[in-house]
Design brief:
Elements (H helix, E strand, L loop, with lengths): L6 H26 L2 E2 L13 E2 L2 H23 L7
Antiparallel strand pairs: 1-2
Helix pairs in contact: 1-2
Length: 83
């Protein structure tokens, strides 16, 4: 963050970092809590489980991919000092 001379671009960068951290944590929580009971996600002996369908998991991953792409575009549009 030392290469960014202005406050605006510094706050812009910090905002992207915070947003990516929140997106990553929320995505991981979705994958961890995808089944009820939680143990059913990795224990095949549990028979009375309710998990996300494959279609739901695909939609979640596509949503995360699109948001990450938009964040990449936001990072590429950040002005870089030429000094």
């Amino acid at each position: 963050m030392r290469i960014f001379p202005g406050n605006f671009i510094r706050y812009y960068g910090y905002g992207i970092i915070v947003f990516l951290a929140a997106l990553t944590i929320s995505g991981e929580l979705l994958m961890i809590l995808q089944c009820s009971p939680i143990r059913a996600a990795y224990d095949i002996t549990i028979t009375d489980k309710k998990c996300f369908t494959q279609n739901t998991l695909f939609n979640i991953e596509m949503y995360q991919g699109v948001v990450m792409f938009i964040v990449d575009i936001a990072i590429f549009t950040m002005p870089i000092p030429s000094e």
